[in-house]
Design goal:
With 367 residues, this protein is an alpha/beta fold. The chain has helices at residues 2-10, 15-29, 55-65, 80-84, 89-106, 128-132, 140-157, 168-174, 177-197, 209-212, 225-230, 292-308, 352-361, and strands at 42-45, 71-77, 110-116, 161-163, 202-208, 236-241, 269-274, 281-283, 286-288, 313-316.
């Protein structure tokens, strides 16, 4: 009778309200009668601002997003230019991250650090600074620089979670064999180095979910079994997902979109980056129609995917939209595809999706 009444009540609801009720209903139905629902996943961001040259905006953004987070992530490429010029990695890390990490700790945020040995905006290529220097992650001496920087970041800041490579399945298919093997060797070397000094930090890589499902290039499901073979140190798995490149509507994303990737494996997972654009855009071979309400529907629907896989965390790398007009000229053009993922706009004004993020965050965290 209760289920029948629920269905009757759903008729005539507007779509965002319908999504929210369905999410809440799934939460309630999945819980014991005498136990309130608790979320399994921590929630957080990487510090971001609409304009990278405005320190005040970074501080304003930081104060806004840390109110609605119980985790934080630092996801960064290796500072190749500085390291190649002889800058001490310890001093670089202190100058660029120590104050931020101390602030996170003062807020009791659990910390993830992800070090990308490749090119975060172009998985076909080495990092731009390596290309400019005529170097590659395939070079043994470059791998050693990466490994040293990774050990420094771990030793100085003692994150609970450490990622050693990002979107490994996408690199394997998009980049040359030499680059992929370089990433694989560098990550394994870093894992070995870390274990000599820190037996406790949880090690991971991330995989690109949409690519694993064949959504980025019109392919078929291929999974991520090879990643577990190539990176045997994995203790937990990061998921990168920008499903607006493969789906027209968030509700089309199947509930097992994450869980199928680890079927038969007992491993914790978390979303290390992702989101849904709040504005329409044109990408190669695809016109993406979106809005702030569609982005809101994604935040609502995404909670079902997280629950299905019993995720331990979810991160949006950007809390704010990006002001494209204020970017330096050397930033790759494809940054435009990720410019409207924020839960606030370039003036730090909330979008509708922020309310749904806050609603999820208000649910107590399972201990």
């Amino acid at each position: 009778k209760t289920t029948q009444q629920l269905i009757i009540n759903l008729v005539g609801m507007n779509r965002p309200a319908l999504f929210l009720v369905l999410v809440i209903s799934l939460f309630v139905l999945s819980c014991d009668d005498d136990k309130p629902y608790q979320r399994s996943y921590r929630m957080g961001f990487q510090n971001s601002a609409p304009r990278i040259d405005n320190l005040d905006l970074f501080i304003q953004s930081l104060n806004l997003w840390t109110q609605r987070s119980d985790a934080a992530i630092i996801s960064t490429e290796v500072p190749w230019e500085e390291l190649l010029s002889g800058v001490d990695p310890v001093q670089y890390a202190i100058n660029n991250y120590q104050g931020l990490v101390e602030f996170y700790r003062s807020k009791n945020l659990e910390l993830w650090i992800y070090i990308d040995p490749q090119n975060g905006l172009d998985r076909t290529s080495d990092a731009l600074e390596l290309l400019a220097a005529g170097k590659s992650i395939a070079d043994p001496e470059i791998q050693l620089l990466y490994r040293r920087f990774t050990v420094v970041m771990d030793s100085l800041f003692q994150p609970e979670h450490l990622g050693l490579a990002l979107e490994t399945n996408l690199i394997r298919d998009a980049a040359s064999t030499e680059i992929y093997n370089g990433v694989k060797e560098a990550a394994q070397g870093a894992a070995d180095d870390i274990r000599l000094v820190n037996p406790d930090v949880k090690l991971s890589v991330s995989v690109q979910v949409d690519h694993a499902w064949g959504k980025l290039a019109g392919g078929t499901y291929q999974g991520i079994d090879q990643d577990f073979l190539d990176f045997p140190f994995i203790q937990e798995l990061g998921l990168s997902s920008y499903p607006y490149f493969g789906f027209d509507d968030p509700i089309e994303i199947p509930p097992h979109y994450y869980s199928q990737l680890i079927e038969g494996k007992n491993i914790p997972v978390f979303v290390s980056e992702g989101g849904w654009t709040s504005e329409s855009l044109t990408a190669p071979g695809r016109t993406i129609t979106s809005s702030t309400e569609i982005q809101r529907a994604y935040i609502q629907h995404h909670s079902i995917l997280l629950q299905k896989v019993n995720a331990i965390a979810v991160f949006q790398l950007v809390f704010t939209d990006i002001d494209l007009d204020a970017l330096p000229p050397d930033v790759p053009d494809n940054i435009q595809y990720f410019a409207h993922l924020g839960l606030v706009d370039t003036n730090l004004q909330p979008k509708p999706a922020l309310t749904d993020w806050d609603n999820q965050f208000s649910i107590s965290l399972k201990k």
